[in-house]
C-alpha cells in the first residue's frame, strides 16, 4: 500500500470509452518532473498509448523547461520506448536504470 500511495497526488487514471485502462503518476517539481508509475492493462499495451502519454508529458515538461526522470527495471522492455522518446540512462543499480529526458 505504501508504494501505491507514493506520488498519488499526481495520479491520473487513463480512460477509454468510459472505462479505466491505465494509470500515470507524475510528480511535478519546479525543475524536474518524476514519472513514478505508468501502467496500462495488458490488452491495451503495444498500441502506442504509452508512447502517446509519455510524449504528451514530455511536451508539457518542455514548455515548463523541466527535466523528466523515471526509473525502469532492467528486465522491463519499456526501456526501448523510453530511449526512443529521448530518455537516456543516467545511473543504474543491480535491478534498475534511472533515466532522464532534458527539455
Automatic annotation (TrEMBL):
Keywords: Transferase
Domain N-acetyltransferase: from-to ranges: 1-103
Keyword Transferase recorded: yes
TM regions (residue ranges): none
MF GO annotations: acyltransferase activity, transferring groups other than amino-acyl groups
Keyword Ligase among record annotations: no
Listed InterPro entries: Acyl_CoA_acyltransferase (IPR016181), GNAT_dom (IPR000182)
Xref: Pfam families: Acetyltransf_7
UniProt-recorded name of the protein: Acetyltransferase (GNAT) domain-containing protein
Amino acid at each position: 500500500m505504501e508504494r501505491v500511495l507514493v506520488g498519488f497526488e499526481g495520479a491520473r487514471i487513463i480512460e477509454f470509452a468510459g472505462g479505466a485502462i491505465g494509470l500515470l503518476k507524475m510528480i511535478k517539481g519546479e525543475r524536474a518532473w518524476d514519472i513514478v508509475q505508468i501502467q496500462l492493462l495488458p490488452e491495451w499495451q503495444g498500441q502506442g498509448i504509452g508512447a502517446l502519454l509519455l510524449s504528451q508529458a514530455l511536451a508539457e515538461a518542455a514548455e515548463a523547461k523541466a527535466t523528466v526522470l523515471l526509473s525502469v527495471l532492467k528486465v522491463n522492455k519499456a526501456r526501448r520506448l523510453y530511449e526512443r522518446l529521448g530518455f537516456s540512462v543516467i545511473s543504474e543499480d543491480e535491478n534498475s536504470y534511472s533515466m532522464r529526458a532534458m527539455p
